[in-house]
Amino acid sequence: MSTLEIKNLHVSVETNDGPKPILRGVDLTISSGEIHAIMGPNGSGKSTLAYSIAGHPKYTVTDGEVLLDGENVLEMSVDERARAGMFLAMQYPVEVPGVTVSNFLRTARTAISGEAPPLRKWVGDVKDAMTKLRMDPEFAQRDVNHGFSGGEKKRHEILQMELLAPKFAILDETDSGLDVDALRVVSEGVNRVHAATGLGVMLITHYTRILNYIKPDFVHVFVDGRIAEQGGPELAERLEAEGYDRFLTPAV
Ligand code: ADP
Ligand code: MG
Ligand code: MG
Description:
alpha/beta; binds magnesium ion
């Protein structure tokens, strides 16, 4: 049983005009086995929250803390965060030319567990995970994200998550740009890992559609750099019907 605690988190992003405050006091606690949906309008700071927890260098924490089982995540390097059990599926996954999916996954697994997985078992595990995500086996020999379709990039993120077995996964708009079939496959992957390992999930999304497949225990509405409202799954249904208008400051 693990706990990820975000307390009073304030974050600024580095821009050409200097630091710009984005997160303005985020409080959120996720325990193992829980699925938290973070929903909110574009530009509200959802990706900033994900990147800050993952340790992206462009984002500076100006106040607050992030604790994983009481350990200060913000003092850890990006590698240490991954070893501690944090996983981020990015909204816009990056290309890694010259590195195959297969090598990338094995290197990541080795970095996280401190030793290379036994080759035979590893090859089998990768194959199994790819079959479950309905990925062509040839995919393993392609360069990471190079020429991948939107759906392939998202499947690859979930493939990483299945094989790296993190304690907590932050999934940043893993649903965006997916057709219904890909959305189902990706959601099944998340549900499978969640059921098998008690993965805690922060599911960031702009739309309620993915919540038909992945059932959140809690829904948080993110507006203007902080959580404006929280509730259970019924809150997502309300957002589906009403949109985000009532959370936004009317123009004067
Ligand atoms: P969301 O994921 O909710 O759409 P983001 O976290 O991506 O929101 O962005 C929040 C705000 O921070 C936006 O106003 C965005 O323009 C700004 N922002 C994020 N990253 C940068 C950056 N690298 N440079 C300038 N502004 C940024
Ligand atoms: Mg659950
Ligand atoms: Mg975003």
